[in-house]
Fold this sequence. Notes:
Layout: E1 4-6, H1 9-17, E2 22-24, E3 31-35, H2 39-49, E4 58-60, H3 67-70, H4 78-88, E5 93-98, E6 113-117, H5 122-131, E7 135-136, H6 151-158, E8 164-166, E9 178-183, E10 186-191, H7 197-200, E11 205-208, E12 231-234, E13 248-252, H8 260-263, E14 268-271, H9 278-293, E15 299-303, H10 310-322
Parallel strand pairs: 1-8, 2-8, 4-6, 5-9, 10-11, 12-15, 13-14, 13-15
Antiparallel strand pairs: 2-3, 3-7, 4-7, 5-6, 9-10
Helix pairs in contact: 1-5, 2-9, 9-10
Amino acid sequence: MKTVISTDRAAAVELLRKGDLVGLPTETVYGLAASALNAVAVAKIFEAKDRPRFDPLIVHLPNREWLERIAEVPASDRQLIGNLTDKFWPGPFTMVLPKLKVVPEIVTAGLGTVAVRLSIHPVFAEIASELDEPLAAPSANRFGRVSPTTAQHVLDELNGRIPLIVDAGRTEHGIESTIVAVQDGRITVLRRGPITHEQLSQFAKVASLAGAPKISSPGQLPSHYAPKTPLGLIDNAEDFFPHKDQRVGLLAWKSNGGSPGTTKRFAAVRNLTDRADLREAAANLFRHLRELDALDLDLIVAERVPSQGLGAAIMDRLERASHR
Ligand code: TXA
Ligand code: MG
């Protein structure tokens, strides 16, 4: 794939509309954007970034009205959230709130909450508003590298992996947005950024997770979705036989639901993909896990997926979910 750097906003809108990725400037750092409501498009973000695991992404809104179309604004926090958005939106300020169903699980890595922000960058704002859809966008760097603050940085990171980078020069802040959780009248800072503790404390009591002792792996954060049903990994469901009075759910990759004889052994089956497509599997992973988890099964078994490309991120998630 040839990666083009240009200032063509119409081309960006068109690519995003059909589920492709575009590198976009924001006031903080360049982001790698996809339509947030299209799970397969979002899977491409993890693929392009070589992320070995799924991290929840920030959803960027086209305008304020979109907030209540993707997130829940609890009555008890409505006033505070209104005050914060009046003051800091549009701008480098991200809020974590309970998510609504329209947001695909892959966007939030299976969490019940979604991070939302409204960028003030004129180019980003124009594209989002023309598209009139929220955009999932992490920083446009490969995994483990520093966030890009120019279009050339994005090209250095993602050349050949995305069709378009929209160039609007250097970003203003150069560091990522401040992320807060708002709950029960309190603000908790999850990531420090351009909006400071002092600024926030004019609105409510502020606690800081960012100052808490470091957790060795971000995947161990309690905020990561973990199924309550025990999960086991297997190579092939054809070779797996549940105990007689055990209700077992199957998350299928290889057996694709399996022969009728195989499927019958399971209390429930979810296929990650019908055509051995890792993007589709990634897009379906958290939703299917959550559905199986809701069935009060004794056990869920998941077939291992090939660990290349996006498959590594899928396997990472499955392994974490099974180590308990
Ligand atoms: O300035 C920014 O925020 C940039 C620009 C592109 O908007 N974006 C950015 O995204 O920094 P990213 O993916 O590099 O960092 C997003 C971080 C995740 O690593 C995670 O810590 C946090 O946001 N996050 C996202 N959703 C969350 C959720 N539901 N709960 C807690 N943390 C969340
Ligand atoms: Mg990042």
